[in-house]
C-alpha cells in the first residue's frame, strides 16, 4: 500500500464517525483507531486464520436491519469495548428496528478484538458488528 493511500485512509477516519478501521490487502494489514489525541495507525502483515477452533477469529453480525447502539443510553458506558471478554448470553449491543430495541447477545465465550461500527450507525442484515476471538 502506498503512502498516499494510507494518508487518504487516515483522512477518511478523521472525517467520519468511525472509531476504528482495519483494511487487509493481500499480505498487508493496516489498523487505525481514533483517540482523543488523534488517529493512531498500526501496520502489520495480515494474520492467517487457523483451523484450530480455540484460536479462530470470527465476526458477530447483525441479525436484522436497524440502528446500532453500543449502550442502552447516551450517558451509560458501552456494553463491550475492544479487549473485553464476554460470556455466551452477554449483551454486546442493541439494534433498534421499527421502534423496537433488540438486545444482541454473544452466542459463545469470546474476546472483543474490534468494534466494527459506530454508535447510532445504520446496519444491514449480516453486517459485521464485532471482530472476536472464540475462547
What can you see in these coordinates?
The chain has 135 residues and is mainly β. The chain has one helix at 3-14, and strands at residues 20-25, 28-35, 38-45, 57-61, 66-69, 85-86, 91-97, 100-105, 110-115, 122-123, 128-134. The strands form three sheets. It has a four-stranded antiparallel beta sheet with strand order 4-11-9-6, with no helix packed on it. The chain has a four-stranded antiparallel beta sheet with strand order 8-7-5-10, with no helix packed on it. The chain is globular, with a radius of gyration of 16 Å.
Summarize the SSE layout with pairings.
Blueprint: H1 3-14, E1 20-25, E2 28-35, E3 38-45, E4 57-61, E5 66-69, E6 85-86, E7 91-97, E8 100-105, E9 110-115, E10 122-123, E11 128-134
Antiparallel strand pairs: 1-2, 2-3, 4-11, 5-7, 5-10, 6-9, 7-8, 9-11
Highlighted features:
2 domains, mainly beta, 135 residues, 1 helix, OB fold (Dihydrolipoamide Acetyltransferase, E2P)
Tell me the span between the first and last alpha carbons: 33 Å
The amount of beta strand, in percent, is over 45%
Query: What do the pLDDT scores average to?
Result: 80
Protein structure class: mainly beta
**Total DSSP E strands:** 11
Sheet bearing the most strands, described? 4 strands, antiparallel
CATH topology of the largest domain: OB fold (Dihydrolipoamide Acetyltransferase, E2P)
CATH architecture of the largest domain: Beta Barrel
Order of helices and strands: HEEEEEEEEEEE
The shape is: globular
Q: How large, in whole angstroms, is the Cα Rg?
A: 16 Å
Widest sheet: strand ordering: 4-11-9-6
Name of the CATH first level of the largest domain: Mainly Beta
Tell me the domain tally. Answer: 2
The parts where pLDDT drops under 50 for at least 5 residues are 36-50
The CATH homologous superfamily name of the largest domain equals: RNA polymerase II/Efflux pump adaptor protein, barrel-sandwich hybrid domain
**Relative helix content:** under 10%
The number of helices is 1
Amino acid at each position: 500500500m502506498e503512502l498516499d493511500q494510507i494518508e487518504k485512509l487516515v483522512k477518511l477516519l478523521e472525517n467520519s464517525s468511525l472509531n476504528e478501521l482495519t483494511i487487509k490487502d493481500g499480505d498487508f494489514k493496516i489498523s487505525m483507531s481514533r483517540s482523543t489525541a488523534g488517529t493512531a495507525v498500526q501496520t502489520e502483515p495480515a494474520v492467517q486464520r487457523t483451523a484450530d477452533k480455540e484460536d479462530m477469529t470470527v465476526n458477530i453480525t447483525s441479525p436484522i436491519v436497524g440502528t446500532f447502539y453500543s449502550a442502552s443510553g447516551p450517558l451509560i458506558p458501552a456494553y463491550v469495548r475492544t479487549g473485553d471478554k464476554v460470556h455466551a448470553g452477554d449483551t454486546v449491543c442493541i439494534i433498534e428496528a421499527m421502534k423496537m430495541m433488540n438486545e444482541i447477545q454473544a452466542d459463545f465465550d469470546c474476546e472483543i478484538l474490534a468494534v466494527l461500527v459506530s454508535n447510532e450507525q445504520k446496519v444491514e442484515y449480516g453486517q459485521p458488528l464485532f471482530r472476536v476471538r472464540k475462547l
